[in-house]
Write a structure and sequence with these properties.
heterodimer; A: 318 residues; 2 strands; globular; B: 358 residues; alpha/beta; Rossmann fold; 6-stranded mixed sheet; 11 helices; 12 strands
């Protein structure tokens, strides 16, 4: 029991934030996407693209900020493939997402051979974003909350801002209302003269930008090089976070925090050897937590009515 | 709906074709060099792939060296996932390869299957134990006494973390060292057990922590595991986790403590932080096996074990730490190596033998 108490400290919570950030970003982005009516299971692939391009640009320019922009843009562009396939060509959303996930691995492997001469892992970038960790004066002195929220690295700060922005966008703006309408009742939206296609494109694009940022976090902020498959299923965990978060930005954030916590907790359980349990049990703990969360909360959470349902307009003059 | 299904199938096939481009591209490059019909030797990497700055790169280096020395055509195929093992190994055999290497403990079953189905090709598995009673005659296991490398690195870490901690501001007085493990497989456990025994042999009070991450490709998890141990006062992190461990070494570097690399000299990952690396002679073993195979001296159905007496296990140079590590410590490390060589000390090969619960 003493061991458990020793684990529950500020460091655990700071680690929770670090581990949950990529999941949070992808899950909040996916929330906006699914609210517009497009199912997105391609976060894993988009994260890989974002992570890779962030490293490529940071490596050749020596500037991690340019790498950051490259990661976000790469995620956005790659996600547009999903938008074109599902919105314009009316492809099944899950099929398109699955294809994107596979495609990303192929593209990245090809480009790695092109740029670095081998697949696997890239050479380290000269400067990572972790060098830009800064404490916000005053606020970072608050016990517990200070180190958690006000003494972090750039993308973690950005993720906090983006959660609030996503919340505001969905709830308080006209555009957000239209975007949600595209996912609830597209025909009604089209009737008042707003293009459902445009809203759905926007939703997918935002999710791509968010996932690209999540990828950049993994490769140039948390690490200083790109490894094939370095997202290791975080895109799918984000999907689970979005579902158990009830398709809301704040819910997704809280669920992602929970998954990050589960991971940080299991690492410390191993170190402190609180319970005589084989390490395999600890390793599956975060995934087990995911399954339980999705299975337990999914009944209460409701997807947008027209989520995953194709919308096709037939124009007489066309 | 059938239209959509058709489009999806087309896109899926295109996607797969795209991943195939890498293959075709790699193949065409090699086509030029095979104009004179050289003998082919080849390897299939584990999922970590080339560029892991660890055992995949080490094996490839050995094969490359043999290819240069004996004018061979060295080919390599990367395994994206575990289901690729058998097709990759079989494909290389069908290409007419003289000897095919499977790199990594996880390839054991795949090698058995491929060797049984391709009796005319020699197969060698790095880190793979072959059951002599049932293995085909064209399959050889190449094993290492990782516990010896771990032991020597452990002696160094055990002395530096407490008794000589004052020599570097990267070290502290807490008397804690940590290990980050990838999957909990035998070669990893041998390193772990050896390291633990090495630390305890010179510093019985030292607290030796370890975290099993269960994955070899997750830098973020490796970093978090290392940071969690650093919070507990660890000032030396030994990584036994492939690419996951790159994250652990970066964490050590960023936190301003020391790290120990694994398998090959990983000095380049974090030059200021890395004291040494616990190495094993994968390059050497691969080279010797290729040499035996092309001279038709390959004998399979058994295992070859490389240890400190073959100069296949031990630690790499100290590089930036060479002037930091006191002569007393270097002497103790050399003595540990001598004791292992003479058999005076036997490094434990498992946690049970080492009496370690971690």
């Amino acid at each position: 029991m003493e061991g458990i108490l020793a684990i529950l400290n500020t460091d655990l919570l700071v680690a929770t934030i670090r581990l949950s950030t990529p999941i949070t970003l992808a899950a909040v982005g996916a929330t906006i996407c699914e609210r517009s009516g497009i199912v997105n299971i391609a976060m894993e692939g988009i994260m890989i693209m974002g992570a890779f391009f962030a490293v490529i640009v940071a490596y050749y320019t020596g500037n991690p900020w340019l790498g950051l922009i490259a990661g976000i843009v790469a995620g956005g562009i790659f996600s547009l493939v999903h938008a074109v396939a599902t919105v314009s060509f009316h492809l099944d959303h899950v099929v398109s997402g699955a294809v994107l996930n596979i495609l990303s691995f192929g593209i990245v492997r090809y480009l790695m051979v092109l740029f670095f001469g081998h697949p696997g892992t890239t050479d380290p970038i000269p400067h990572g974003l972790a060098e830009y960790q800064f404490a916000i004066p005053g606020l970072s002195k608050i016990p517990v909350l200070g180190p958690m929220f006000f003494n972090q690295t750039p993308i973690i700060y950005m993720s906090f801002i983006l959660i609030i922005a996503a919340l505001f966008f969905l709830k308080k703006t006209k555009l957000g209302l239209h975007l949600r309408a595209a996912g609830e009742h597209p025909l009604a939206l089209e009737t008042i003269g707003v293009s459902v296609y445009k809203m759905r494109y926007l939703g997918v694009l935002i999710s791509g930008l968010f996932s690209g940022l999540a990828g950049a976090y993994l490769s140039i902020e948390n690490a200083v090089s790109f490894t094939e498959g370095m997202s290791n299923g975080r895109g799918f965990i984000a999907l689970a976070a979005m579902i158990s978060g009830g398709w809301t930005a704040i819910g997704s954030f809280l669920a992602a925090l929970f998954f990050g916590f589960a991971d940080a907790f299991q690492i410390r359980m191993q170190i402190f050897k609180v319970l005589p349990i084989p390490s395999e049990i600890f390793i599956i703990f975060p995934y087990l937590a995911t399954v339980i969360a999705v299975a337990g909360l999914v009944k209460k959470s409701r997807p947008p009515k027209a989520d995953g349902i194709d919308f096709m307009i037939e124009r007489e003059d066309a | 709906m059938s239209k959509f299904t058709r489009i999806s199938v087309i896109i899926l096939v295109l996607a797969l074709a795209f991943s195939g481009i890498v293959f075709a591209n790699g193949g065409s490059e090699k086509a030029d060099s095979t104009a004179v019909a050289k003998v082919i030797v080849s390897m299939a990497t584990d999922t970590g792939g080339l560029g892991d700055k660890s055992f995949n790169d080490g094996s490839y280096a050995g094969m490359k060296k043999a290819a240069d020395d004996f004018n061979l055509d060295a080919r390599v195929v990367e395994s994206k996932q575990q289901t690729d093992y058998v097709p990759n190994l079989t494909g290389l055999a069908e290409d007419g390869s003289k000897v095919v290497f499977g790199v990594g403990f996880l390839m054991a079953d795949a090698l058995m299957e491929a060797a049984t189905n391709n009796p005319d090709t020699e197969f060698a598995g790095i880190d793979v134990w072959v059951d002599p009673s049932s293995a085909p005659k064209n399959l050889q296991g190449l094993l290492f006494k990782e516990q010896e490398s771990g032991y020597v690195a452990g002696v160094l870490a055990g002395l530096m973390t407490k008794k000589y901690a004052s020599v570097s501001d990267r070290l502290n007085d807490d008397n804690v060292v940590g290990m980050v493990l990838g999957m909990d497989i035998p070669p990893v456990e041998r390193y772990q057990a050896g390291f633990y025994a090495g630390v305890k042999s010179v510093n019985p009070d030292c607290k030796v922590l370890s975290v099993v991450t269960g994955v070899f490709t997750d830098q973020a998890k490796g970093k978090e595991s290392a940071l969690a141990m650093i919070e507990q006062g660890a000032d030396i992190i030994f990584q036994i986790a492939g690419l996951t461990g790159i994250g652990a070494l970066n964490a050590a570097d960023e936190a301003g403590i020391a790290g120990i690399g694994v398998d090959v000299d990983q000095y380049g990952v974090a030059p200021d932080a890395i004291m040494t690396s616990a190495v094993k002679g994968i390059t050497q073993a691969t080279y010797l096996t290729v040499k035996a195979a092309i001279n038709d001296k390959f004998v399979g159905g058994n295992n070859r074990v490389f240890g400190i007496n073959e100069d296949a296990t031990g630690i790499s140079p100290y590089h930036n730490w060479n002037n930091v590590i006191p002569a007393d410590v270097k002497d103790a490390v050399d003595k540990a190596i001598a004791d292992l060589k003479s058999g005076k000390v036997v490094a434990p090969a498992s946690r049970a033998e080492a009496g370690y619960e971690g």
